[in-house]
Amino acid sequence: NAWESFEVNEVKSGNVLLVDDMVDSRWTFTVCGYKLIEKGSGKVYPFALSNTAGSGGDD
């Protein structure tokens, strides 16, 4: 569960580049972004190296 897996204790003000190697549903980005903003960060910009959503090999 992403809500319980990530905890943000202290954040400096300013924008954040949130990087993940692979994403599927992008739910982790949603949860982490919410928690960062809740603690006082600026805008959160998610960036993923690879998107695995819908990659069933049928392309």
Task: Give me some keywords for this one.
59 residues; alpha+beta; two-stranded parallel ribbon; 2 helices
SS-derived structural category: alpha+beta
User: Between the first and last Cα atoms, what is the distance in angstroms?
Assistant: 30 Å
Overall geometry: globular
Poorly predicted runs are none
| Helix content bin | 25-40%
Number of strands: 2
Tell me the strand percentage band.
25-35%
Helical element count? 2
Q: Give average pLDDT, whole number.
A: 90
Radius of gyration: 13 Å
Element string (H = helix, E = strand) = HEHE
**Biggest sheet overview:** 2 strands, parallel
- Sheet with most strands: strand arrangement: 1-2
Oligomeric description of these chains: single chain
Give a written overview of the molecule.
The chain has a domain at 15-51. It is 27% helix and 27% strand. The model has no long low-confidence stretch (mean pLDDT 90). The termini are far apart. A two-stranded parallel sheet has the order 1-2. Strand 1 (16-23), helix 2 (27-38) and strand 2 (44-51) form a beta-alpha-beta unit. The longest helix is centred in the middle third of the chain and has 12 residues, at 27-38. The protein has 59 residues and is α+β, with helices and mostly antiparallel strands. It contains 2 helices and 2 strands, in the order αβαβ.
